[in-house]
Amino acid sequence: MVDGNRDAIARAIDADFGGRPWQETELLEIVPLLGAIRNTSRHLRRWMHDERRDVALPFQPGSAWVRHEPLGVIGIISPWNYPLFLSLGPLVDALAAGNRAMIKPSELTPRFSELLKRMVSDHFDADLIAVETGGVEVAQAFSALPFDHLIFTGSTSVGRKVMQAAASNLTPVTLELGGKSPAVLAPDYSLDKAARSIVLGKFTNAGQTCIAPDYVLIPAGQTDAFAHKIMSRLETAYPAAGSEGGYSNIITTGHRTRLTEAVEEARNAGATILRPSGDYGTKFPPTLVVNAPEECLLLRDEIFGPVLPIVTYETLEEALSFISRRARPLSMYVFTNNRRTAKTILDGAISGGVTLNGTLLHVAQDDLPFGGVGASGMGAYHGRHGFRRMSHARSIFKPGFLNAFEFLGPPFGKLADIAIRILGR
Fold first, then answer.
1. Strand 307-313 vs strand 215-219: parallel, antiparallel, or unpaired?
2. pTM of the entire structure?
3. What whole-number distance in Å separates Cα of residue 326 and Cα of residue 322?
4. Gap between the Cα atoms of 158 and 162, Å rounded
5. What's the number of CA atoms in the CB half-sphere (13 Å) around residue 192?
6. Cβ distance 308 to 215 under 8 Å?
7. Cα–Cα distance between 184 and 52 in angstroms, integer?
8. pLDDT at 282 over 90
């Protein structure tokens, strides 16, 4: 279904965004989705095997095992920023675990949502997979349905509402949210290499990525040099991007206004604003913000756009303190070649996932769980972790030919007393 509609998918998403390169849709949605399908198809038989468990001595000679079974019907509420991958990625795991599924795609990508509905109806029976389109009212009704599991990807504020709606049915949830994912540069790391990685991770899809670096922590004294490296890389990566079509648009006027106001607030508070010289037309240009005050919007709320604040630190402890004063992020990026420094940062700050000396790449690993922690979400999926997340781990025990435990029942006697003394040590 996906491979046969690659061009239609890219065109629909490009139209919904008012401009998104087809290469981004291929590299960040279609390619990883096909990879997830292949990985799951290759390993599913092994994942499905019953798993033997140890049996304690008093219950020997018995046997115990875990059987993974379908939960039932999985609800998937997907966002607009990666509408294909975040709709069908969870679906791969749901189907692998033997479930049926209902998908509610975002109303902010109407062309893609209608395409998804047509594709699914052409390839699957309606009682196996259904796609429901519509606005906020449909999403609210959808999240209140008595699913056997509900997966939501989106903002933390909406995630709270989804969890409240699911609670009335005792529906378990997987919430993939976001937050302020930091990039931490240690003094030993190359500014050139860091700039290349961070520009890719931050400005792909115009920063509208839940795991994009939200801000950079850099040693004091290196700010100007790093900002120069970032600007040089931006000039190379996105020359005259507005006219050449190599740079994504912001999804709505409202999102663009929010970003503009946040940057102007930082400027008015004394921050330095840097932008490349290319012609971006009506698109929001890549923006660096240096020396923004900690209380400004850009350093309080998730940015979700092509704006990168640069924050300086004197010591790693100061950098880790800066991170810990914010809600736990979905991702963290650590740039260092020193193992001890990497361990210090990993030990000192909690996040959903981490890429060392790069950005975004941990989410592309099919055998790693992907998920948040705290305000950035709960639960993890992808690959075998998604199969297990969408399954019920059913415990099964079978006594052996001799069930000694039954001899300890009433009427209680000396045998029970002896067993209690021995087993209760």
1. parallel
2. 0.94
3. 7
4. 6
5. 0
6. yes
7. 42
8. no
**How many Å separate Cα 50 from the centre of its chain?**
29
Reply yes or no: is the peptide bond before residue 411 cis, omega within 30 of 0. yes
CA pair distance 157, 149, nearest whole angstrom:
20
Contact 207, 238 (CB under 8 A): no
Q: Convert the pLDDT of each residue in 130-143 to its tens digit.
A: 999 999 999 999 99
d(CA 367, CA 301): 31
- Does the N-terminal peptide bond of residue 172 adopt cis geometry, omega within 30 degrees of 0? no
Please identify every residue annotated as catalytic: 176, 210
Query: Rounded mean pLDDT of 74-100?
Result: 98
The encoded tokens of residue 421 equal: 């003394």
Q: Is 403 left (phi over 0), alpha (psi -120 to 50) or beta?
A: beta
Give the separation between CA 119 and CA 130, rounded to whole angstroms.
11
- CA proximity to 213, closest of 109, 315, 331, 296: 331
How many CB atoms are closer than 10 A to CB 277?
Answer: 11
- What backbone torsions phi and psi does residue 73 show, to the nearest 5 degrees? -115, 125
With a CB cutoff of 8 Å and minimum separation 6, the contacts of 188 are: 336, 337, 338, 341
Task: Enter the tokens of residue 384.
Answer: 């075998």
Rg (CA), the chain: 25
DSSP 8-state code for residue 28: I
* Residue whose structure tokens are 């890389």: 233
